[in-house]
Amino acid sequence: MEEEETKNKIKEPFTDYGRYSYADYLTWQLDEMVELIKGKVFRSAAAAPRRIHQEISGKVFNKLFNFLEKHPCKVYVAPFDVRLPVKSKKNEDIYTVVQPDICVICDKSKLDVMGCIGAPDLIVEILSPGSNKKELKNKYEVFEESGVQEYWIIHPDEQTVMTYTLTTGKYIPSRLFTSGDVIESNSIPGYRLDLEYVFKDLD
Which pLDDT score is estimated for 10? Predict the structure, then answer.
């Protein structure tokens, strides 16, 4: 009986109780993507991301990849595990594991076979229906605390972007960007993203 309960727990993590670590995360056998934020499990929608989400992700990733092709920084697209340790890098001591839509890491020592351990320089999240609260509150707080230098939130339906730049440990928000604006990255010198290109022909 105990063996069956343990097996079920491995296959089915719950958000209502307990605190889970990256060590737990590695044992789960799930069909959908989950993330850990301060030990709590957050599930993604069972369905695949919407087409518009994927189009925007592809456009932003493409521009970053081309810009960084001869650059020491590396860009990755989800699914890609980013572990954000607080005190120890041991699997059992890591309680936040996220899968950003897009992330850029410039310190190669943070990259290993499992993904990234430590704060990326830039994280880009593209909002999906029902995910706004997680992106805007939970991830905002943990990215700020972990030292993610720059955090972009793209709203596909409204065709807007907000960027946050870490300054003395706190995020400073930008104005609201929209189609026609060009965003200049603070963490990746020289990188500029034309939002007219990003939001063009999304019908």
Answer: 46
Rounded to the nearest angstrom, the gap between the alpha carbon of residue 31 and the centroid of all alpha carbons in its chain is 19
Tokens at 14, concatenated: 């719950």
Contacts of 101 (CB under 8 A, 6+ apart): 53, 57, 77, 78, 124, 125, 126
pLDDT of res. 152: 97
Below-70 pLDDT ranges, the chain? 1-17, 44-48, 130-132, 134-135
Q: Distance (Å, rounded) from C-alpha 61 to C-alpha 202?
A: 16
3-state SS record for the chain: CHHHHHHHHHHCCCCCCCCCCHHHHCCCCCCCCEEEECCEEEECCCCCCCHHHHHHHHHHHHHHHHHCCCCCCEEEECCCCEECCCCCCCHHHCCCEECCCEEEECCHHHEECCEEECCCCEEEEECCCCCHHHHHHHHHHHHHHHCCCEEEEEECCCCEEEEEEEECCEEEECCCEECCCEEECCCCCCCEEEHHHHHCCCC
CA atoms lying within 13 Å on the CB side of residue 141: 7
Is the CB of residue 126 less than 8 Å from the CB of residue 157?
no
Q: Token pair of 198, please? A: 């990003």
Output Rg (C-alpha) for the chain, integer angstroms: 17
Cis peptide before 79 (omega within 30 of 0): yes
